[in-house]
């Protein structure tokens, strides 16, 4: 049974944006040698490496059309999706949201998911990859998925076994203390949807297998953190692409980064408990997606270790 991916609100961690975030983000930008989308067009991601064809590989994905047959480690480090450039700025105005009304929340979630479906379908087509949008399970009553029962400790999760995004209509409002800022719910949804993007691109299959092979729980968590931080970044890519029409201004951006820090691993977590990254890195990768708006900016698999702690 495949494990679900989730992001859980940690209210005790809420606070100001980490002071070192800006400096670390600058270091990350210098490391990759490109500028944020807000100040110009970023340099293209490295061309995907050539890999020998293997028709016997059951996890082999369709040819990308970019001259790459991506199998093995290249699926996470040199995925054709990374070379597709910025997400198209499709219109996605946020619906008015009453966080105390289940029908209002469900309408909001479905509207944002419609935007996500459209944006990522277009982006995968740029890479010559097939993309099937996820199923939506926005629950109001307890139920069961192939990955876990719900409700659970998580207000939402992604289950690859059913290719579905699961969110609790009441639960997410309660776990986020009925925040009136709709962007926190859009960010949670876009993060879980980011795991579906990883799945459709072949990233989840490879990294899950590598993580399964690790006998040391600390090493397993290292794989998990890179996957979770990439999903943070992919959420930022989408949110940045719809910032004009949503709209997402400076205040919404501040709320998003604070929320990313608040839903990270606690500072006092042990190595065996650290699965989602530090507050600083959680916000950093979301901000990176917001700024660059490209899947290629979310390559956590080649990032230095200190950026995925």
Automatic annotation (TrEMBL):
Chief localisation class: membrane
Origin species, per record, is Thermobifida cellulosilytica TB100
Q: How does it sit in the membrane?
A: Single-pass membrane protein
> Which key words are in the record?
Hydrolase, Membrane, Metalloprotease, Protease, Signal, Transmembrane, Transmembrane helix
For this record, the Gene Ontology CC terms, alphabetical, are: membrane
What name does UniProt use for this protein? Metalloprotease
Q: Name one GO biological process term.
A: proteolysis
Location of the protein in the cell: Membrane
**InterPro entries with a match to the protein in the record:** Uncharacterised_pept_Zn_put
